[in-house]
């Protein structure tokens, strides 16, 4: 499915059985960002419905022994027919900087392009500077901080990228 991952890793679409496994890695992979409030926020962002109804546009990367190495939860916008959305992405810290995140994004871009989408959007919290650098390196534009974007006290930064009309090269 994704043939350009580092050796020992393979990818497949998410399924419902992955739900608790993915929830189980969030705090460690996010490094406890924003403490207990951050942990509650992250868990609330991944209810089971994403593992039931958004599986065909979402990926799980596994090691040979079946351990989770990375995931990307994304979907096609129902409101904007040209847009796809990346809701959540995480890579095991042991694998950071090896291009796994970039590979997941590139494959998501190719998939949604094949489904008629030409724009990808996502958000992060202002405190997540690593995420902001990552998205900037991949060519996303970055908004100013949007206060209370996701509710009182839940400020966000928004990213967007227009996909090229030809083959999707490495962003
Ligand atoms: C953000 C994240 C997904 C990046 O994954 P990754 O596999 O390490 O990223 P890649 O190796 O593919 O890096 C792609 C580019 O982003 C840059 N980058 C990635 N993480 C970075 C960081 N923490 N600081 C600076 N640059 C970073 C890389 O240098 C690379 O740039 P370049 O090749 O143009 O020099 C990963 O750090 C992660 O899972 N973080 C915790 C969860 C999170 O914050 N998710 C995103 C918000 S929902």
Please describe what this structure looks like.
- With 171 residues, the protein is an alpha+beta fold.
- It has a domain at 9-121: Gcn5-related N-acetyltransferase (GNAT) (Aminopeptidase).
- Helix content is 29%, strand content 25%.
- It contains 5 helices and 7 strands.
- The chain has a 7-stranded mixed beta sheet with strand order 1-2-3-4-5-7-6.
- A hairpin with a 4-residue loop joins strand 2 (59-63) and strand 3.
- The protein is globular, with a radius of gyration of 15 Å.
- The two termini are 19 Å apart.
- The model has no long low-confidence stretch (mean pLDDT 94).
- The protein binds coenzyme A.
- Coenzyme A binds next to strand 4, helix 4 and helix 5.
What is the secondary structure topology, with strand pairs?
Layout: E1 9-13, H1 19-29, H2 35-44, H3 49-53, E2 59-63, E3 68-76, E4 83-91, H4 100-114, E5 119-124, H5 129-137, E6 141-142, E7 157-162
Parallel strand pairs: 4-5
Antiparallel strand pairs: 1-2, 2-3, 3-4, 5-7, 6-7
Quick take:
This protein has helices spanning 19-29, 35-44, 49-53, 100-114, 129-137; strands at 9-13, 59-63, 68-76, 83-91, 119-124, 141-142, 157-162.
- Supply the CATH architecture of the domain at 9-121: 3-Layer(aba) Sandwich
Strand fraction equals: 15-25%
CATH class of the domain at 9-121: Alpha Beta
* Secondary-structure element order, N to C: EHHHEEEHEHEE
Name the average pLDDT: 94
What is the fourth-level CATH superfamily of the domain at 9-121?
Gcn5-related N-acetyltransferase (GNAT)
The largest pleated sheet is described as: 7 strands, mixed
Total number of strands: 7
Secondary structure tally, helices: 5
Helix/strand/pairing class, anyone?
Answer: alpha+beta
Lateral strand order in the biggest sheet = 1-2-3-4-5-7-6
CATH topology of the domain at 9-121: Aminopeptidase
Q: Identify every distinct bound molecule in the structure, by name, code or SMILES.
A: coenzyme A
Radius of gyration: 15 Å
Task: Note the gap between the termini.
Answer: 19 Å
The level of helicity is 25-40%
């Amino acid at each position: 499915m994704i043939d350009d991952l580092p050796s020992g890793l393979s990818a497949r679409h998410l399924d419902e059985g992955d739900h608790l496994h993915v929830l189980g890695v969030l705090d460690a992979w996010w490094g406890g960002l924003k403490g207990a409030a951050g942990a509650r926020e992250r868990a609330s962002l991944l209810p089971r419905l994403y593992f039931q109804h958004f599986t065909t546009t979402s990926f799980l990367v596994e090691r040979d022994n079946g351990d989770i190495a990375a995931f990307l939860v994304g979907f096609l916008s129902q409101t904007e027919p040209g847009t796809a959305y990346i809701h959540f992405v995480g890579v095991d810290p042991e694998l950071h900087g090896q291009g796994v995140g970039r590979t997941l994004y590139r494959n998501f871009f190719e998939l949604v392009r094949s489904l008629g989408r030409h724009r990808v959007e996502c958000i992060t919290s202002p405190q997540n500077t690593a995420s902001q650098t990552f998205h900037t390196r991949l060519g996303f534009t970055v908004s100013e901080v949007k206060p209370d974007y996701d509710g009182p006290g839940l400020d966000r930064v928004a990213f967007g990228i227009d996909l090229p009309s030809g083959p999707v090269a490495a962003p």
